[in-house]
Amino acid sequence: MATTTRGPVTMRLCFFSAAALFLLCFLLPAAVAEERFYEFVVQETLVKRLCNTQKIITVNGQFPGPTIEVYDGDTVAIRAVNMARYNVTLHWHGLRQLRNGWADGPEFVTQCPIRPGGSYTYRFAIQGQEGTLWWHAHSSWLRATVHGALLIRPRPGVPYPFPKPHSEFPVILAEWWRRDPIAVLRQSMITGAPPNVSDAILINGQPGDFLECSAQETSIIPVAAGETTLLRIINAAMNTELFVSLAGHKMTVVAADAMYTKPFETTVVLLGPGQTTDVLVTAHAAPGRYYLAARAYASAQGVPFDNTTATAIFQYKGGAGCPTTAAGAGAAGAVAGAGVGAGAAGGAGAVAGAGAGASTFNGPTGAGANTFNGPLGRSKYSGGNPGRAGPAPMLPYLPAYNDTNTATAFSNSIRSPAPVKVPGPVTQEVFTTVGFGLFNCRPGPFCQGPNNTRFGASMNNVSFQLPNTVSLLQAHYHHIPGVFTDDFPPMPPVFFDFTSQNVPRALWQPVKGTKLYRVKYGAVVQIVFQDTGIFAAEEHPMHIHGYHFYVLATGFGNYDPVRDAHKFNLVDPPSRNTIGVPVGGWAVVRFVADNPGVWLVHCHIDAHLTGGLGMALLVEDGEAELEATMAPPLDLPLCVL
Ligand SMILES: [Cu+2]
């Protein structure tokens, strides 16, 4: 993928602005901010997984997709060219996109899709954010294979708030279907049944040693004894919350959702789809090979899930059982120790195939885009598996699929590193249920949900419907009537024992609508997400576009505003963009509405979003010029009205 760096933004400012800025330009180092350009070609690509060759949609032929590496303060332009046969949009998950919803990406929320043959350049600034984020398609189910890491490094000269790790490695978790994921979705849309569960969990594009035809391609994470590696873990899975464990090593959590956290040690990490977690691992075990494993946290009882275990190998350079030379004589593939050692500091780790017979692990290639090529480079490899060229790696402890205690303990450990100023008092409050619903239908082929229904989901009983002619943001900005209403209810239409396992059937059927909730610019917004027991209670990872929010409290059962207000953490709550609402429980989040526009709020489990588990906030403009949504870019994809 081509990456070029254009002139520093500060220099450009000098040309275009007046004397006051001129002085500023002298004071700021020229390299403080750069404009980075990427070209993302969305295209069909052949890949082999689970013994079969399939066509998937990728960016630039890579799966996982290219890594974007930028610095805080940079401006970024990503030209998306759609060479696939599906409509597509791209979303930059966790980026604030201040006043710039046009670059946010969710289809029919902030833009119409990029049609096949079309293109759109996403332009945005990184303003005061650093850490691990990711990007993904936000159209239909394309994000199953159209996703990648988005790494924001601190401004030059600004250190991490922890000792600089010797190396870094993205760990991208995903799901694989033996079929086209779009076909899986379509089948569900036709029949009304929930979509089929995936066939394998992936780590950096590979299922690992325990799935058929996969062991030879298992992802390797090369480490050097005594050195510390920063693992940037991203849950890009469509529908599965995942536990991640590493054999023989403790992990120290230092960030979540691109916000630093109070460091804590753990043996297991939990991530819902959409979430990221950075962990430091010091290689102080006996040199050798250790499995990094991921498998489901399936919080809903009696609901099918993908129960496979994905593995990668955390491999010491030159350790016992770790090949050190690139013998490459066809049979047992070798790991080139020299390549591993080179240039381990700084950039993201890169795994790239060396072609004929042997697999070589190239060290990080330094700054710039696309240093993580994932497994594609090794896909031709047909000899022995590097990961199997020695003693079997040690397997880590993994919690049981339904281990809610471990999930809760992990989530509750995440805190801001220092006391924060929690905004208050609250000026706008929304109490919303999040959960399933079942639409009654006439028994037949289009009524294949549980007990002759069509499967759905809702917030406050509204099952969210996207428009299909123009996006919500365009309708808002251009005052186009009839696209949405702004009457999303700030509380449920009926109060009941939300988390009971016996919610009366009369309450199971939601109402379809495109309802937005209007927020005053500058309002202090508090949202209580309340899970329901309708059909099944399940943990829902709720994501708010355009914002980070403080998570003041979570709990089980029904939220009680009097009792539970005492549980609010007003000292060091974590700041996140995606919060797992506990199964059969609730979560309270708070933020200042300082970003005007239309912002999707939704469950990041795509099967639930597809069912309608979403809504959108309409944050009004403030009074000042810099408090208003920017004008749309000229190349915003045309809508077919
Ligand atoms: Cu959900």
Automatic annotation (TrEMBL):
<dbReference type="InterPro" id="IPR034288">
    <property type="entry name" value="CuRO_1_LCC"/>
</dbReference>
<dbReference type="InterPro" id="IPR033138">
    <property type="entry name" value="Cu_oxidase_CS"/>
</dbReference>
<feature type="signal peptide">
    <location>
        <begin position="1"/>
        <end position="33"/>
    </location>
</feature>
<dbReference type="InterPro" id="IPR001117">
    <property type="entry name" value="Cu-oxidase_2nd"/>
</dbReference>
<feature type="domain" description="Plastocyanin-like">
    <location>
        <begin position="42"/>
        <end position="155"/>
    </location>
</feature>
<keyword id="KW-0964">Secreted</keyword>
<dbReference type="Pfam" id="PF00394">
    <property type="entry name" value="Cu-oxidase"/>
</dbReference>
<keyword id="KW-0732">Signal</keyword>
<dbReference type="Pfam" id="PF07732">
    <property type="entry name" value="Cu-oxidase_3"/>
</dbReference>
<dbReference type="InterPro" id="IPR045087">
    <property type="entry name" value="Cu-oxidase_fam"/>
</dbReference>
<comment type="function">
    <text>Lignin degradation and detoxification of lignin-derived products.</text>
</comment>
<feature type="domain" description="Plastocyanin-like">
    <location>
        <begin position="168"/>
        <end position="318"/>
    </location>
</feature>
<dbReference type="InterPro" id="IPR002355">
    <property type="entry name" value="Cu_oxidase_Cu_BS"/>
</dbReference>
<dbReference type="InterPro" id="IPR034285">
    <property type="entry name" value="CuRO_2_LCC"/>
</dbReference>
<dbReference type="GO" id="GO:0052716">
    <property type="term" value="F:hydroquinone:oxygen oxidoreductase activity"/>
</dbReference>
<keyword id="KW-0479">Metal-binding</keyword>
<keyword id="KW-0052">Apoplast</keyword>
<keyword id="KW-0186">Copper</keyword>
<dbReference type="GO" id="GO:0048046">
    <property type="term" value="C:apoplast"/>
</dbReference>
<keyword id="KW-0677">Repeat</keyword>
<dbReference type="InterPro" id="IPR011707">
    <property type="entry name" value="Cu-oxidase-like_N"/>
</dbReference>
<protein>
    <recommendedName>
        <fullName>laccase</fullName>
        <ecNumber>1.10.3.2</ecNumber>
    </recommendedName>
</protein>
<keyword id="KW-0439">Lignin degradation</keyword>
<dbReference type="GO" id="GO:0005507">
    <property type="term" value="F:copper ion binding"/>
</dbReference>
<dbReference type="InterPro" id="IPR008972">
    <property type="entry name" value="Cupredoxin"/>
</dbReference>
<comment type="similarity">
    <text>Belongs to the multicopper oxidase family.</text>
</comment>
<dbReference type="Pfam" id="PF07731">
    <property type="entry name" value="Cu-oxidase_2"/>
</dbReference>
<dbReference type="GO" id="GO:0046274">
    <property type="term" value="P:lignin catabolic process"/>
</dbReference>
<feature type="domain" description="Plastocyanin-like">
    <location>
        <begin position="487"/>
        <end position="622"/>
    </location>
</feature>
<keyword id="KW-0560">Oxidoreductase</keyword>
<dbReference type="InterPro" id="IPR034289">
    <property type="entry name" value="CuRO_3_LCC"/>
</dbReference>
<dbReference type="InterPro" id="IPR011706">
    <property type="entry name" value="Cu-oxidase_C"/>
</dbReference>
